[in-house]
Amino acid sequence: MPPSERTIANLRDELDHVNTHVAKVEKACNTAEVSLSLQNAQHKRELSQLHQEIETLKSRPDLEGVVAELEERINEMEDLLRKKCEEIEENDDVKLG
Q1: Burial class (CB in 10 A: 0-12, 13-18, 19+), 81
Q2: pLDDT tens-place string over residues 57-81
Q3: How many whole angstroms separate alpha carbon 34 and alpha carbon 40?
Q4: What predicted TM-score, i.e. pTM, was given to this entire model?
Q5: Domain residues of the chain, as ranges?
Q6: Which of 36, 45, 81, 90 is found 20 to 30 A from 72 (Cα to Cα)?
C-alpha cells in the first residue's frame, strides 16, 4: 500500500473514531438536556408550591398579637376568679361567724 493510501486509510479510521466520539457526546448532551429540563420543571413546581405556602402564611393572623391578647384575657379572668373566691370566703365567714 503506497504511503498516500495508508495516510488516507489512517485518516478515515481517525475520522470514524471522531464521528463515533461525536455521536456519543451528542447522545450524552441530549440526555443531559432532558435531565436538565425535568429538573427545571421540578424546581418550578417546588418554587410555585413555596410561593403558595408563603402566601398562606402571610394571610394568617399575627399569632403573637393573638397570644398577647389571650394572655391578657387569662390574667383578667384569673383576677375575676380570685376576687370571686375572696367574696365567697367573706360571705362564708359572715354566715359562719
Answers
A1: exposed
A2: 888 878 888 889 999 999 999 999 9
A3: 10
A4: 0.51
A5: 1-60, 61-97
A6: 90
